[in-house]
Design brief:
Elements: E1 7-11, H1 15-21, H2 26-46, E2 51-58, H3 66-89, E3 92-97, H4 105-118, E4 124-132, H5 134-148, H6 154-160, E5 171-174, E6 193-196, H7 206-217, H8 227-239
Parallel strand pairs: 1-2, 1-5, 2-4, 3-4, 5-6
Helix pairs in contact: 1-2, 2-3, 3-4, 5-6
């Protein structure tokens, strides 16, 4: 039987291509992507996943056509209003991770309201990376340490990262057929397992999630050790 990883992170790629294949505007693909995310959140909670982190809007996405960026912002604000009550009822704790300085006051207010409304939930932590970039995350963490006069060590830097409230992801999934990390969780995914799905994000369903989890369960996570060391360690744990 497959055991779900504690923390799954997903690059939700392929919304625009899904829409283009159907001769629809790209924003229609993003709307369909919200439906897919809703299904995924529910499926992860049912499978015992503790943390789900999704890449919703990267710091590089500002360079997309103005009409698409504007549509994404409107969709995000609308999704905050529509989805949060159900997420709250389902026990989901929301965190929005990323630079908020250049977001509209309407979006920032919605983010803060959603986080406050779900703060006491504990069934599933949902991190939505919005206006996020892995390099930005490392730089902002280093800047905090510098401002505090704190030595830059691996431990100290980890404590200031945007996802310091959760453990590093065990499994990183990317949909859409591309096989790159695209500036997502560069620090946190150092020892994550990766699964690349050929499905576009609006097509990603419970069955494909289960395939990814099954693939994860067949991986040997050595964290720099050898297979023999892991076997010996497991034997010692069993005896103990």
């Amino acid at each position: 039987m497959s055991h779900a990883p504690h923390h799954i992170a997903i690059v939700m790629d392929g919304n625009g291509r899904w829409a283009s294949k159907r001769f629809l505007p790209r924003v229609a693909g993003h709307k369909q992507g919200v439906d897919s995310l809703r299904r995924c959140v529910k499926a992860c909670a049912q499978r015992g996943v503790g943390v789900l982190t999704v890449f919703a809007f990267s710091s590089e996405n500002w360079s997309r056509p103005a009409e698409e960026v504007s549509g994404l912002m409107e969709l995000f604000a609308l999704a905050l209003t529509r989805e949060v009550p159900q997420l709250k009822a389902d026990g989901v704790q929301l965190h929005f991770v990323g630079e908020r300085a250049n977001l509209s006051t309407k979006v920032v207010a919605g983010i803060e309201k959603a986080e406050l409304a779900t703060a006491s939930n504990s069934r599933l932590i949902l991190n939505v990376c919005f206006n996020y970039g892995g390099r930005w995350d490392i730089v902002q963490a280093a800047a905090k340490l510098a401002a505090q006069g704190t030595p830059v060590t691996e431990s100290n830097l980890s404590g200031e990262m945007a996802l310091a409230h959760v453990p590093d992801p065990d499994l990183v999934i990317r949909t859409g057929g591309e096989q790159r990390i695209s500036n997502f969780l560069l620090w946190q995914s150092a020892y994550s397992e990766f699964y690349f799905s050929g499905k576009l994000w609006p097509e990603f369903d419970e069955a494909e999630l289960d395939v990814a989890i099954a693939a994860f369960n067949h991986r040997e996570r050595r964290f720099g050790k050898t297979s023999d060391q892991l076997v010996a360690q497991a034997a010692t744990s069993t005896v103990a």
